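Justification of resources, computational component.

The compute hours requested in this renewal are based largely on the per-chain cost of generating structure records like the one below. Each record pairs the submitted sequence with a full C-alpha cell output. That output is archived, and it is also reused by downstream analysis tasks.
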Amino acid sequence: MSWLFFSIATAVLWGTAELFYKKGAKPDEKYSHLKICVWVGVVMGAHAIFTLLTQDINYNPANIIHYLPVSAFYIISMAFSYFGMRFLEESISDPIENSAGLICTLLFVIILKEEISWLTWVAIIVITVGVLGVSFLENHGETPRKKKLGKTLAIVAFCMPFVYALLDAFGTFLDNAFYLGEDISISPLVDVTDETIEAVANTSYELTFALFALGLFIFMKAKKVKFGPVRQHTDKILAAVFETAGQFTYVYTLGGNDAVAAPILSSVCVISLLLSRIFLKEKLNWKTYIFIGVVIVGILLLAVSEEL
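The structure output for this chain reads:
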C-alpha cells in the first residue's frame, strides 16, 4: 500500500507548493513571476543532475530537443500561472487550472476520436457549469479586484488560469498520446526502455526548465532587475522544493490502484483551497465558493471516470 502513502504525499506536497507560489508571487514585485520560474529551474535542474548521478537511465542529451514540445507547453503554462497568482486568489485560480484534465480529455475525443464513458461526460458538464459560474461572478459587476487593479488588468489576471489549463492540457495530450504511450517504439524519445522512459522524460523536462531559468536570469540581469539576498526568496524557493518533491513522490504512485490514486492526486486544489483559506486568509463571495465546489466535484468525478 506504499502507493497510497505516496499518492497522499504528492497531493499534499503539490497543494503546499501552490500556497508558497501564491506567497512568492507578490503583486507589487514586477518580475516576481519570472523569479519564481528561475528558482523552480534551479531546483529542478539540481534534481535532474541528482537523477543522472544516482540512476542508470542511459540518458541521451538529444532528448532535451526531442521532448522540447512537451516541456515548452508545461513551462510556459507555469509562467502564465505565476503571473496570474500575483493578482488572483489561489482559491479561484487553482480549481480552474486543474480543469486542464477536462481539456485534455476533449483533445483525445476530438483529435484521436476516442470514446469516453457517460460518467466522464457528466464530469465535463459539471466542471463546465462550475467554471462558467465562477467566470460570470468574476466578470459581472464591480469586484474589489477591478477597483484595485483596473478592469483590463483584472480581466488579464483572470484569464491566466485558463491559459495555464489550455497549455498544460496540450502538454499532457502530447505526453500521453505520443511520448509516453504504451508502445515506446513510436515515442520520439531515444535510447529509452519501458523502465527508463518516464525518468528520461522528466529529466529532459527538468533540464529544459533549468536552461529556461538561466535565460530568464540573464534577461533580468540585462534589465538590471535586483534579486536581493536569498532570504528574500524563501517562499519562491520553498514552492520550487515542494513542486519538485511532489514530482519525485508521484513516480511511486504509479502501478498502484489508479481508481483510488487518481482522485487523491486530483484533490490538490482542495488542499490548496484549505491552505489558502487558513494561511492566506482568502475570503470569497459565498456564491463563488459554491461554483468552486462544483468544479472540484467535477474534477474528482473526471479522475474516477478515467480510471474505471
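The first helix runs from residue 2 to 24. The CA atoms of residues 73 and 240 lie 18 Å apart.
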